[in-house]
Amino acid sequence: MPWYAIHWLLPQTLRSFHYDNQWALWLIPLSVSLFVFRGILGRRYHQQLRVSMAGIVGPRPDIWMRVVSTLRFLLPLSVWLSFSFLLIALARPQIVRQLREEQSDGIDIVLALDISSSMTETDLRPNRLAAARQVAQAFVNGRRNDRIGLVVFAGEAYSLCPLTTDYTLLLQYIRELNPNMIRTTGTAIGDALARSINRLRDSPAKSKVLILLSDGDNTAGNLDPLTVARLAQNFGVKIYTIAVGKRTRLADTLGIATQFDEGILKTIASVGQGGFFRANDAGQLRQVFARIDKLERAPVRVQTYEDIQDQYRPYIYWGISFLLVALFLKNTVLGNSLED
């Protein structure tokens, strides 16, 4: 961009810079007070010769005098602008771009979320799926250096998002989860485990974690959950299961069948060398994720590089340009007229 572009004078451009010598900027408002002080002293002590312009510039000399008096401010204004731009250049405006390189032994995590119709039960408010979705979002927001993937399942299992550090994209997927995404009814926990392990088995990460959120009601699929959990050991994948939902006392008393089975989730977690958690409300769900986050955190090494580009040259050119304008005006009628 050329130095004479108006872009360099825009307030948003000046605010976007990092100034290495910020003290120089404080001299700009100070210079205003010096010009004001000089003007006051000049009016008080400067000798002037009053000359009648009648008959020289026409019948209305007052208009000419007013125009000339106004234009005479161009000289001190040009000097002040030149001084200000040179001070901006002295402040060393810079564009600083930080390049952050994070090296981590890292964790690869796959979230397997049950979106079957049983997850619409309202024993967790507003329902099981909404509670699990909210906490999954909080969990993703709490990670900084880990790749996270997403598998959803009902009667079938699908890999919705591969392992990624694009948490914005991942959160968008989680927000859009609903039971209508998979038309096949049932809950295929075994298939979901297989899909998740398939994502993790070739991962170079030292820590590989599978987090299964479900009500444990395994009613569909072609694979046995326990068999798949045993295969996870061969790939170094730890399985954590979270029972989303709760059995009410009223249901137990009346013998009402509810779609909730935490027994299989306990067995899967035991075989998968992870842990089982019971989430009776959204608050406990958050505690579950906090515990997993604490157990599986890996060390991170961060290196920060700064790309610094100095942008003082355009302001030097602007300062010199206004200085030349001031020197030109000094040798015109605007700089010498009506003086002694």
Low-confidence stretches: 249-257
- What top-tier CATH class of the largest domain fits best? Alpha Beta
Number of helices: 13
What is the share of helical residues? 40-55%
What gap, in angstroms, lies between the N and C termini?
A: 46 Å
Main attributes?
13 helices, three-stranded antiparallel beta sheet, 9 strands, rod-shaped, Rossmann fold
Quick recap:
This protein is of the alpha/beta class and 340 residues long. The chain contains 13 helices and 9 strands.
What does this structure look like?
This protein is α/β, with parallel strands linked by helices and 340 residues long. The chain has 2 domains: 6-97 and 307-336, no CATH class; 106-298, Rossmann fold (3-Layer(aba) Sandwich). It is built from 13 helices and 9 strands. The chain has a 6-stranded mixed beta sheet, with helices on both faces. It has a 3-stranded antiparallel beta sheet with strand order 1-2-9. The longest helix is centred in the first third of the chain and has 23 residues, at 23-45. It is rod-shaped. It starts with 10 loop residues before the first helix and ends with a helix. The relative contact order is 0.17.
